Each structure stands twice: as C-alpha cells, then as structure tokens.
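In response to reviewer comment 3 from the previous cycle, which asked for concrete evidence that the modeling workflow produces usable outputs, we include below a single protein chain processed end to end. The sequence was submitted unchanged, and the resulting structure tokens are shown without manual editing.
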Amino acid sequence: MDPVALTSIAGPFALIVITLRYLFACYVRPFGRCRKCKGERRIRNRIGRGSRYCRRCDGTGLRLRWGRHFLNYARRIHRDGTR
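The workflow returned the following structure tokens.
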C-alpha cells in the first residue's frame, strides 16, 4: 500500500476511533467536572470574602457531558419511534 493511500485512510479511521472512545467514556462516566467552579461546588466572591454555590452545577461540582446529552437524545428518539 502506498503512503498516500495509507494517510488518506488513517485520518478518518482515527477520527472514528476517537469519537467512539469518547462516546464510550460518556456512557461509563456521564458526568464531568463543572467548568465554572472547577468541581469545587462553590465560587468565591470577587473581593475574596465568602463564597456561594455554583449556579451552573447547582452546587454539585458535576455537569452532564455533551456526549451524554447526545446519547440521551438518541435513546429518546429511538424509544419514541418504537412505541
């Protein structure tokens, strides 16, 4: 196999493998750390005194990954279509 054909096949194959690995990771671990509070559940005031619960994650420190949103959406579409 010549190098040009190999590189033209390797790019899309690598993209498919990375996508499938991410979807598997979303299936196994659906929650990731919140980007706003960095998983600490609280946000410090700008002055530096006191803190409050993060509004994005409701003080849990975790957010649902966008890949898991996609899996839930696909599951919902499939379930509604088979009823």
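The helical segments are 3-28, 66-82. We consider this sufficient to address the reviewer's concern, and the full set will be provided in the supplementary archive.
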